[in-house]
């Protein structure tokens, strides 16, 4: 059995101010009338994406995609758009919850590049840097975190805890 640890890793207020900083970074690199085609990776990035996009003062389109994995230990990964989302010629901002090994993000970026965006950049809330197996270019990172299974603010443990306002982690119940 697992349970939520008593301590909080990143409180909601800390996330909120960092998200605004990320939005300002992204704005600085986007012309005043530059359109952004934001792509939120479900389910984990739904909270981060909603907060980040509301803080970005640029005309923005929003798309969603789901990741379907054949097995838990890697295997074939499929990216499924919930609705048609034009990529070609657009300034695409991928919004993801967490970078772990980097395999998922790398595969996604390859897939999107093939659809010829004008620009492709990424915003990731959390980065477990020590776990990286493949180099992965991410422009905007919220927080670097230790190697723990974290939950909350959209992230889950077996579909639980996505609704926590901050980031916590789960521990094995003795
Ligand atoms: P990667 O391909 O190893 O980088 O895995 C990234 C994906 O694994 C993320 O998009 C998350 O869905 C999931 N993931 C990795 N670490 C965590 C965690 O600590 N909590 C919740 N989900 C995680
Ligand atoms: Mg994810």
Secondary structure category = alpha/beta
CATH topology: Rossmann fold
| CATH first level | Alpha Beta
* Corresponding CATH architecture: 3-Layer(aba) Sandwich
Tell me the number of structural domains: 1
Instruction: Determine the number of helices (DSSP H or I, runs of at least 4 residues).
Output: 3
Uncertain stretches of 5 or more adjacent residues? none
Give the strand order, joined by hyphens, for the main sheet.
4-3-2-5-6-7
Distance between the termini: 8 Å
User: Average pLDDT value?
Assistant: 95
**CA radius of gyration:** 16 Å
Provide an overview of this structure.
The protein is an alpha/beta fold and 174 residues long. It has a single domain (13-27, 34-146), classed as 3-Layer(aba) Sandwich (Rossmann fold), CATH 3.40.50. Helix content is 22%, strand content 32%. The protein is built from three helices and nine strands. Helix 1 (12-28) crosses helix 2. Magnesium ion (MG) binds next to strand 5. Inosinic acid binds next to strand 5 and helix 3.
List the helices and strands and how they pair.
Blueprint: E1 2-4, H1 12-28, E2 36-42, H2 46-55, E3 60-69, E4 77-81, E5 91-99, H3 103-113, E6 119-127, E7 140-144, E8 150-151, E9 168-172
Parallel strand pairs: 2-3, 2-5, 5-6, 6-7
Antiparallel strand pairs: 1-9, 3-4, 8-9
Helix pairs in contact: 1-2
The structure holds inosinic acid and magnesium ion.
Magnesium ion binds near residues 41 and 96.
